# Entry
Amino acid sequence: MKKFIKLGIWIGLCFILLIGLTGCAKPQKEYSYRVVTSFYPMYVIALNLCDGIEDVQVQNMTDTAVGCLHDYTLKTKDLRKIEKANMFVMNGAGVENFMDKITQNRTDLAISDTSKADLYWIKDGDEINGHVWNNTNNYLKQIEQIKNDLVANDPAHREQYEANAEKYSDKIRDLEKQRYEVTKETYVVSCNEALAYLLDDVELKIVPVYTEHEESTLSGSALTDVIQQVKDKNIRAIFVDKNDNQTNAKLIAKETGAQIYTLDSGVTGDKKNKDDKDAYINTMKENYQLLKNIFQK
# Structure
């Protein structure tokens, strides 16, 4: 009999504990609209456009440190995020080469493609450079495109999206006033195509050193040609992105005496502060200051 009493007491305690634990569980937040972005530059825009709207969720599909998506392969966790999304925000222009897999899985998913805006393009023959966000005028048009798509697909929050877009656009216009522009014709070497729009935006002339992958080494003939251009044009600056392998840049610098400088194309963010809504602005300010330090001499 005592055994049955003890068993009953243990069952009762376990039941009470189970109820207590269930009661402590934090209820999952409900959202009326879910936005998923392809990578960090789009995430920063979406954070600003959806700022303060409690029932709209913004998630970045990729990790903050992933960088550009040319060779990115979708992961299971990426598709899980997209399963619940109402809208997917992408840069477009070939940056996200996996979009067919997303649209096949989610035929009902609204897509905001910023490359549909009237953007300024840098081209190499027929090939378009898709890293358009590093031109501030392009960036403003990307903000407008995403805002219009949000309003069209989630009209319940129209006023908030429009107010946030105007607020963020004003910040970018203020940023443009701080942009340092080179006043005389100056050639530089760019070892990452993501920097082309930034360098072009400040009126620098570019000698591109792009390979299929930035980690690849130039062929001997291509390297010889670049070195000769650097000497002929009296180029003193070679630019790399912060995450680049610098093999090509070091080879050119060794043969010409040009200096290597590191810029930030904004494709990755700080893991400790990935939700920083001013990440783009702060990054561009640092880029402008570096360019000013180099060329204002």
User: Anything to note?
Assistant: The first strand starts at residue 33 and ends at 37. Residues 2-24 form the longest helix (23 residues). The radius of gyration is 25 Å.
